[in-house]
Amino acid sequence: MNTSSPFQLAWRSFWQLKKHRHEPLWVQLAVGAALALPIGLGMMLINGLITGRVSDHGWWRASLLFNLFSCLCVAYSMLAITRVVEKLLPAASIERMSEAADWRSALVINAIAIGGVMLGAALSLSMYTWLTDWDGWTSFMGHSVAKTEFLAFLMVVAAANWFWWRLRVKQDRLLHQAMEAQLRLLQAQIEPHFLFNTLANVQSLLERDTPRARLMLENFTDYLRASLGQLRHTDSTLEAELAMVRSYLTLLQIRMEDRLRFEIDASDDALAASLPTLLLQPLVENAIEHGLEPKIEGGRVRIRARVTDGQLDICVDDDGLGLDGPRRPRRRGNGMALPNIRERLRTRYGGKATLTLTPQTVGTQAALSLPYRTPA
């Protein structure tokens, strides 16, 4: 068993709100202790430098236990308050606040940290007074240096939380930009093939079926307008994504004629959902290229979108050759669409979004599930 895994998970999520936690409680307590003990030693060193008692070995022995005990109380108070907040808040609110760029997350985490420091300090003074003969409260209230140190500690905790939040926002933004750059590179590799095929079909139809060629050119223009507009943004709505997919399928339907049929069914709340740009079309392209085009009689593509329990669920079904059917030779850039989508989902939503391919009795189903959000 890899014992570092739960510790790494607990360390990364110590300052995050999560409705469901998979790491054991003892691991969370161990991480809290690992965080508290160095802070306790650091605060002792600062106190010794301020008071000039840093070279007094007797002072170190007398105050070491209390300082370490106080820091453990603070760390565990923060942990307890975090878990109480996670239990009381609905899952949807925690999910929104868990996003790094959400300023509410920084405020809540800061409030938890400051509340944990105050509660932990009060508990440590009360418990230490109860366990020993030393009156901690009287000593603290009558000692101006101690109160100044406590106030400085609160400010350090607040500043550290703010710095951590800004660092996380920057890291997530860089990851998101890298994924979008990869998407544009992939799109640039695939689009010319589709563009040249369509123009060749238009040219061929001009000689024998001018009205159909005109219809194909009109739909091709609509598709280009929609796709180029989408590429300028990192976020879109399902309604806009489906409009582009509809233009794409209509264009292919003119070329494939009776070999391609499609159906789009999305609820009103699903249409309003926000999602990353060009997340849906690669699934439709896969269904056509690997499922329907190689099949002599063609088939049908059905796209369904619903909102269920705070998740946007999108299914792309086809009755083509299926996952076990013969594969076409891959073009440059092909075969990267699904891994690209999964990586984009992981970067944007963590473990809250999934993409699964399921073989059907006839054909394949691609199911996309991601947190339901509407544009801000």
Summarize the structure.
This protein is α+β, with helices and mostly antiparallel strands and 376 residues long. It has helices at 4-12, 25-51, 57-88, 91-97, 103-131, 136-141, 144-208, 210-231, 238-256, 268-271, 281-292, 337-349, and strands spanning 235-237, 260-266, 274-276, 299-308, 311-318, 354-359, 364-371. The longest helix is centred in the middle third of the chain and has 65 residues, at 144-208.
Cα distance, first to last residue? 44 Å
**Oligomer kind:** single chain
Strand order of the largest sheet: 2-4-5-7-6
Shape: elongated
The helix/strand order is HHHHHHHHEHEHEHEEHEE
Structural class: alpha+beta
Structure description:
The chain has helices at 4-12, 25-51, 57-88, 91-97, 103-131, 136-141, 144-208, 210-231, 238-256, 268-271, 281-292, 337-349; strands at residues 235-237, 260-266, 274-276, 299-308, 311-318, 354-359, 364-371. With 376 residues, it is α+β, with helices and mostly antiparallel strands. The model has no long low-confidence stretch (mean pLDDT 78).
Topology:
Elements lengths: L3 H9 L12 H27 L5 H32 L2 H7 L5 H29 L4 H6 L2 H65 L1 H22 L3 E3 H19 L3 E7 L1 H4 L2 E3 L4 H12 L6 E10 L2 E8 L18 H13 L4 E6 L4 E8 L5
Parallel strand pairs: 2-4
Antiparallel strand pairs: 1-3, 4-5, 5-7, 6-7
Helix pairs in contact: 1-2, 2-3, 3-5, 5-7, 7-8, 7-12, 8-9
